[in-house]
Design goal:
The protein is about 35% helix and about 20% strand. By secondary structure, the chain is of the alpha/beta class.
Length: about 550
């Protein structure tokens, strides 16, 4: 049994600062220079900040929001809020003003700490005047009443008693892919269990290095990187900006690197812009060159030392995982959700024969499939409920089991495959239900397609909305249409008659967080696209199977 078993995250911070006070814990690039924070530095700054927050009149159990991109100060704030007995409320740094206002008002936050933001003018109108504003040490046009240096001038708070495991630690709002975000309540005990589970299941240790760049406001990064760092003692680095991303990752040379399907797809597109797929295939077949090519690709991404490559948050195409596997980069797929702290199943140690599954249950996690095909989960790292939403809590938590809303199946070895999502299913005009996710996963096998969304509620047949990969040369429309048509024909041959796609519509305008089609975790808001293209059947030209949206506009 691990020596850290049953220790809360705050206890681990104290322990690390005592055992390895001078070891570098956090590495933050600013203006091209790397700034190092030791474990003792981090503890002292968090203790000073906690004292400063108390001096402002904030009381234990008050909600304090965090709005910032990932940085060392985000970690320090999280620890300070734990020390002070406050409840943290992270907000996505890309959230619009409406989401910011909703989360602040729904959570009843008394204060907000703001930090690194790409454009603070987007979020500022969403912060009500009565909420206290506190600024991290980053230049920002957003006005603040209290500043980092002033708060850290306070004497460090005396080491407080550790919280009760059932005490509320944080409220993490879901990304809102199907409507208003829900506030997931997470207590200290659940957070400790999930973070420890990740460390033991993945064998992460103090010699590992991670890069924190996926939003810390999302539970995956909060558990798999921030939480895991406390229980493993590993070092964490950050990135300065999108423009310095590869440079900063290369400088860190992480041993642990977690990403999402869209970014892995973008990485592949970037590689194929430099070397064509046929040439890559040829080089990988030559023994003397294969190893060299693999090392060069890994080094080009800054991942030459990575021993664990992870992927989660959204469905990923098995063909994409196979593509990386051929390059000597096996990607561990995992599955979870905010409600079970993103720690449920993972394909680690990596099993090539289990690509297409999301792995099997982690330590102390139970998974079963209901009679309706829904995935049920039971584990120590589970939410206590939805904030101010008792009915939704009772619907999700029944007899100790979390009803995930995902559908799946278990094989004989306990490996889980996701087959769809209950709320994603739609009924066509023929009165039959279609699960879009498995169809979208198959579409992703075509390297031309970066993303797709299958819609069809009320339509005679489902239809695929498609975004092409950035590397695709859109000047060769005829060739693109030909390849997509071949994919469509092959796919429809595998589907039941009511599932078959009537066609594909190529959307050229990117789906982004800013235009409200993507969530901050890069999931597609299916309901938004359903609304936008609800009238598609009336304008779809007869006989056309593949159509560019601009052509559809001309027809209108």
């Amino acid at each position: 049994m691990s020596p850290t078993t049953n220790k809360l995250s705050l206890a681990m911070l104290y322990e690390r600062a005592e055992r390895q006070p001078d070891d570098v814990y956090l590495r933050q690039p600013k203006d091209g220079q790397w700034h190092h924070y030791t474990w003792s530095n981090v503890l002292e700054q968090a203790a000073r900040l906690a004292a400063g927050l108390h001096a402002l009149g904030l009381q234990p159990e008050d909600k304090v929001a965090l709005l910032s991109k990932n940085c060392a100060e985000w970690f320090i704030c999280d620890f300070a809020l734990q020390m002070g007995g406050f409840v943290s409320v992270p907000i996505y740094p890309t959230a619009g003003q409406d989401t910011v206002r909703y989360v602040l008002e729904h959570s009843e936050s008394r204060a907000i700490i703001t930090g690194k933001l790409d454009d603070a003018t987007i979020q500022e109108p969403g912060i009500p005047e009565h909420i206290m504003r506190i600024a991290m040490p980053y230049t920002s046009p957003m006005g603040s009443q209290h500043h980092w240096e002033t708060l850290l001038a306070h004497d460090p708070i005396a080491q407080p008693p550790l919280p009760n495991p059932k005490q509320l630690m944080t409220i993490v709002y879901t990304s809102g892919s199907t409507g208003d975000p829900k506030g997931v309540m997470i207590d200290f005990g659940a957070y400790a269990a999930a973070a420890q589970g990740v460390v033991t299941s993945s064998a992460i240790n103090k010699d590992d290095r991670a890069v924190s760049y996926l939003p810390l406001s999302h539970i995956t990064e909060r558990v798999y990187v921030l939480g895991a760092s406390l229980y493993s003692g590993m070092q964490v680095s950050f990135v300065q900006s999108l423009g310095t991303f590869i440079q900063d990752v290369s400088h860190t040379s992480p041993t642990i690197f977690i990403s999402v399907p869209r970014l892995w797809t973008n990485f592949r597109s970037g590689i194929l812009e430099k070397i064509s797929q046929p040439k890559l295939d040829l080089l990988l077949k030559i023994p003397l060159l294969s190893g060299f090519i693999k090392k060069k690709v890994r080094a080009g991404l800054g991942l030459k030392d990575a021993r664990i490559l992870g992927c989660g948050s959204a469905p990923v195409s098995p063909s994409l995982l196979r593509w990386y596997e051929r390059l000597g980069m096996p990607i561990t797929e995992a599955w979870g959700m905010t409600e079970n702290l993103a720690y449920s199943t993972l394909n680690y140690p990596y099993r090539s024969d289990k690509v297409g599954t999301v792995g099997r249950r982690g330590d102390h996690v139970d998974i079963r499939i209901s009679d309706e095909g829904e995935i049920l989960c039971r584990c120590p790292g589970m939410m206590s409920g939805y904030y101010k939403q008792e009915a939704a809590t009772q619907e999700a938590l029944k007899d100790g089991w979390l009803h995930t809303g995902d559908q799946g199946r278990l094989d004989g070895e306990g490996f889980l495959s996701i087959t769809g999502r209950l709320k994603d299913a739609f009924k066509t005009a023929k009165g039959k239900y279609v699960q879009p996710v498995p169809i979208e996963t198959k579409l992703a096998d075509n390297a031309l397609i970066e993303q797709s969304c299958v819609i069809g509620s009320g339509l005679p047949q489902p239809l695929a909305l498609v975004q092409l990969a950035e590397s695709v040369d859109k000047q060769h429309k005829g060739k693109i249409v030909e390849q997509l048509a071949a994919t469509l024909e092959q796919l429809n041959a595998q589907l039941e008659s009511h599932q078959r796609l009537s066609g594909m519509l190529i959307i050229e305008k990117p789906w982004t967080i800013e235009n409200d089609v993507m969530t901050p975790t890069l999931k597609i808001k299916r309901h938004r696209l359903e609304q936008q293209y609800a009238e598609l059947e009336q304008t779809w030209p007869k006989g056309r199977v593949i159509l560019w949206e601009q052509e559809l506009t001309k027809i209108k």
